[in-house]
């Protein structure tokens, strides 16, 4: 079975968030399960690309925005990621350092999608499945069924995975000329609320769509930034599959980024040694429970609650808790978090930005991870946390609801239903009460670290879905 994954991100080539982690791991685990899975990305002038060798395997031209452009397809030589990696290069368009936020981003990702389709059309490449991730690849299911140029590919099953339905790839109908020749009688498949909506087109035209947790599939029908009616209508096409984590990368026994490796049986001492070094780095005490936040400082993550909640906790639980925040995002949230440093130097530390190695050290050294997310389709941070014996303290929404069971329900985390500052403070209070009982805390660490959130389980669900769609004569 041949499966091609299309995505804007793939760790460690290019990553902004969970999308990159998923696309960097799922294909590897699919290959280990016997599926020939590959990844096709836009070319990025980043460290991984600069430090590894690629062969040019194809070169041609296609049309976007009414103009003909040349593109090249490059393949990484050594298969070092556990799967074949292909990059699509277009001079002046797909040769940049950053992934998003260019003024011509629409043209950037449309050209990437057209180049991919043009490449497989002009060659003998005929995958059994084309697996698209988020709106950046959402036009592919429409184009291979409704473009007059590429209709010979229409029999290939397409799957769209929605990692975050809030972002949809909108463009005005004045940009329809960016697309190759299409059957205009089918233009309604592109439209939602009088604009071209890439995610909506993908949901309408793909054979199946998946969400990154079962609960998020249900939530899309009531909260999806204007697509609620569409997800209600297309619900039978949807499948919720919880993301996994790459347990080879996220493994406290072997992780080269942490201070001291540890296993389930040595977690108490191992975590303390990591905590000690981490707290020294931030100038705070390692003898108190450490509560952390790792993620984007945006409303979607409930990050605007953090400054008030942290300050209230430091006053309410005076001298009994420390906090560390790692993240970047909305300037006003960053400023508010920085201001807390002067007031609470020995109890609080913040790093504005993102540092992959520091995130590993924080997971290894922390006692509790806060996730006050407003929207969390799956969430990976809570899965990394339990892998390292760090208890998640989460707002019960999306994938957090699927993956974190409250300790009062014989689980391993702390959950709350209302997204309010006081609720977060109360949840931290519960965490501190648990921490007081060293024996219970140790048992809960062991329980968390014994959980299986690996991609092995999730990959099997994807394979079953692939098999259900493959047309016998196309195999």
TrEMBL record:
<feature type="domain" description="Glycosyl transferase family 1">
    <location>
        <begin position="281"/>
        <end position="442"/>
    </location>
</feature>
<keyword id="KW-0808">Transferase</keyword>
<feature type="binding site">
    <location>
        <position position="15"/>
    </location>
    <ligand>
        <name>ADP-alpha-D-glucose</name>
    </ligand>
</feature>
<keyword id="KW-0328">Glycosyltransferase</keyword>
<dbReference type="GO" id="GO:0004373">
    <property type="term" value="F:alpha-1,4-glucan glucosyltransferase (UDP-glucose donor) activity"/>
</dbReference>
<dbReference type="GO" id="GO:0009011">
    <property type="term" value="F:alpha-1,4-glucan glucosyltransferase (ADP-glucose donor) activity"/>
</dbReference>
<feature type="domain" description="Starch synthase catalytic">
    <location>
        <begin position="3"/>
        <end position="230"/>
    </location>
</feature>
<dbReference type="InterPro" id="IPR011835">
    <property type="entry name" value="GS/SS"/>
</dbReference>
<comment type="similarity">
    <text>Belongs to the glycosyltransferase 1 family. Bacterial/plant glycogen synthase subfamily.</text>
</comment>
<dbReference type="Pfam" id="PF00534">
    <property type="entry name" value="Glycos_transf_1"/>
</dbReference>
<protein>
    <recommendedName>
        <fullName>Glycogen synthase</fullName>
        <ecNumber>2.4.1.21</ecNumber>
    </recommendedName>
</protein>
<comment type="pathway">
    <text>Glycan biosynthesis; glycogen biosynthesis.</text>
</comment>
<dbReference type="InterPro" id="IPR013534">
    <property type="entry name" value="Starch_synth_cat_dom"/>
</dbReference>
<dbReference type="InterPro" id="IPR001296">
    <property type="entry name" value="Glyco_trans_1"/>
</dbReference>
<keyword id="KW-0320">Glycogen biosynthesis</keyword>
<dbReference type="GO" id="GO:0005978">
    <property type="term" value="P:glycogen biosynthetic process"/>
</dbReference>
<comment type="function">
    <text>Synthesizes alpha-1,4-glucan chains using ADP-glucose.</text>
</comment>
<dbReference type="Pfam" id="PF08323">
    <property type="entry name" value="Glyco_transf_5"/>
</dbReference>
């Amino acid at each position: 079975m041949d499966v091609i994954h299309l995505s804007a991100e793939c760790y460690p080539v290019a990553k902004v968030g969970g999308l990159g982690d998923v696309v960097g791991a799922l294909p590897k685990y699919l290959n280990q399960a016997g599926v020939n899975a590959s990844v096709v990305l836009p070319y990025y002038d980043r460290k991984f690309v600069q430090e590894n060798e690629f062969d040019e395997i194809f070169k041609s031209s296609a049309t976007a925005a009414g103009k003909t452009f040349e593109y090249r397809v490059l393949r990484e030589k050594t298969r070092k990621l556990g799967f074949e990696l292909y990059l699509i290069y277009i001079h002046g368009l797909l040769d940049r350092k950053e992934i998003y936020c260019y003024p011509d981003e629409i043209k950037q990702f449309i050209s990437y999608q057209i180049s991919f389709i043009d490449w497989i059309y002009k060659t003998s490449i005929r995958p059994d499945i084309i697996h698209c991730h988020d709106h950046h690849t959402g036009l592919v299911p429409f184009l291979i069924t409704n473009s007059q140029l590429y209709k010979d590919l229409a029999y290939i099953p397409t799957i769209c995975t929605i990692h975050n339905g809030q972002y949809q790839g909108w463009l005005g109908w004045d940009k329809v000329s960016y697309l190759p020749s299409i059957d205009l009688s089918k233009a309604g498949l592109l439209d939602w609320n009088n604009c071209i909506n890439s995610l909506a087109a993908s949901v309408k035209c793909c054979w199946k769509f998946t969400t990154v947790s079962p609960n998020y599939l249900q939530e899309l029908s009531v909260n999806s930034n204007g697509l609620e009616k569409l997800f209600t209508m297309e619900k039978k096409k949807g499948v919720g599959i919880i993301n996994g984590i790459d347990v080879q990368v996220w493994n406290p026994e072997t992780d080269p980024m942490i201070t001291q490796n540890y296993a389930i049986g040595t977690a108490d001492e191992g975590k303390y040694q990591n905590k000690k070094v981490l707290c020294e780095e931030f100038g705070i005490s390692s003898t108190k429970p450490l509560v952390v936040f790792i993620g984007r400082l945006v409303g979607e993550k409930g990050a605007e609650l953090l400054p008030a909640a942290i300050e209230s906790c430091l006053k309410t639980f005076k001298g009994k808790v420390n906090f560390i925040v790692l993240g970047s995002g909305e300037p006003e949230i960053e400023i508010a978090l920085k201001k807390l440093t002067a007031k609470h130097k020995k109890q609080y530390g913040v790093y504005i930005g993102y540092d992959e190695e520091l995130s590993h050290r924080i997971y290894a050294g922390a006692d509790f991870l806060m996730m006050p997310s407003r929207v969390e389709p799956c969430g990976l941070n809570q899965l990394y946390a339990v892998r390292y014996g760090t208890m998640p303290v989460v707002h019960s929404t999306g994938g957090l609801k699927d993956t974190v069971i409250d300790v009062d329900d014989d689980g391993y985390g702390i959950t709350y239903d209302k997204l309010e500052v006081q609720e977060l403070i109360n949840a931290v209070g519960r965490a501190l009460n648990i921490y007081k009982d060293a024996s219970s805390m140790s048992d809960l660490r062991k329980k968390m670290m014994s959980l299986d959130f690996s991609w092995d389980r999730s990959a099997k669900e994807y394979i079953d879905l692939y098999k259900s769609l493959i047309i016998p004569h196309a195999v």
